[in-house]
């Protein structure tokens, strides 16, 4: 029993890590662009020709509600951008 409990805990922790890992090549999680995203309305007209394939491109903007949005893109082999993550920072009300 002393060995089984740590083994179960380790299995649960590994399963949690595997389920929250960022997407790998192929990006199974398809985020849709929102107004302000680089790829909203289609891919940009200019291609990123000097950046290596697989490079990360960060992008920050404010959405229509004034929230700070941070997005991360990766450059695909065809030089298009793939949106891989988005974080929205919600402003908490202040007491002022």
TrEMBL record:
Q: Please tell me whether the keyword Signal is annotated for this protein.
A: yes
This protein is called what? Transmembrane protein
Keywords tagged on the record: Signal
Highest rank taxon of the organism: Bacteria
> Which organism is this entry from?
Sinorhizobium psoraleae
Instruction: Provide the leader sequence positions.
Output: 1-21
């Amino acid at each position: 029993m002393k060995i089984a409990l740590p083994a179960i805990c380790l299995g649960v922790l590994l399963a949690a890590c595997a389920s929250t890992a960022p997407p790998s090549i192929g990006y199974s999680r398809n985020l849709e662009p929102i107004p302000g995203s680089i790829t909203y309305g289609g891919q940009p007209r200019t291609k990123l020709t000097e950046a290596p394939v697989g490079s990360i491109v960060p992008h920050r903007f404010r959405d229509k509600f004034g929230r700070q949005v941070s997005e991360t893109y990766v450059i695909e082999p065809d030089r298009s951008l793939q949106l891989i993550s988005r974080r929205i920072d919600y402003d908490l009300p202040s007491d002022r």
